[in-house]
Design a protein that fits this description.
Strand content: under 5%
Number of helices: 6
Shape: elongated
Number of domains: 1
Order of helices and strands: HHHHHH
Distance between the termini: 27 Å
Radius of gyration: 15 Å
């Protein structure tokens, strides 16, 4: 279900080029592992575990300087011509690199918490 839930986060959330989709998706994974089960758990669990997401955002920002998709890949994804050139391009490869790096960051955070 999480894969389906994350579908529209790609390419800066709905092709807007804003917050990087893989950052949002990995944050969802961390939330699935360490977040609250429901509202009845209150804000305490959220506040206790928020540093997990903060750590990912800080690592991401250190690696890519920004969390904004279009600035990371240097493509205006709202421009249909630019978007059509994006698939299969070196810029698209940059996107895959960002995904790989971010998955690694999240995996490291999980491994450190589980050890």
């Amino acid at each position: 279900m999480l894969f389906k839930d994350a579908t529209f986060l790609e390419r800066g959330i709905g092709l807007t080029g804003k917050t990087c989709g893989t950052l949002s998706e990995r944050t969802m994974v961390l939330g699935t592992l360490y977040g609250r089960e429901g509202f009845e758990e209150g804000a305490v669990k959220v506040l206790e575990n928020m540093p997990i997401a903060e750590e990912l955002v800080k690592k991401f920002g250190k690696e890519f300087v920004t969390t904004v998709c279009r600035k990371i890949i240097n493509v205006n994804l709202t421009d249909k011509k630019a978007l059509s050139k994006f698939s299969g391009s070196k810029t698209h490869e940059k996107c895959f690199e960002v995904v790989r790096e971010t998955v690694g960051m999240a995996a490291e955070i999980i491994a450190n918490r589980e050890s």
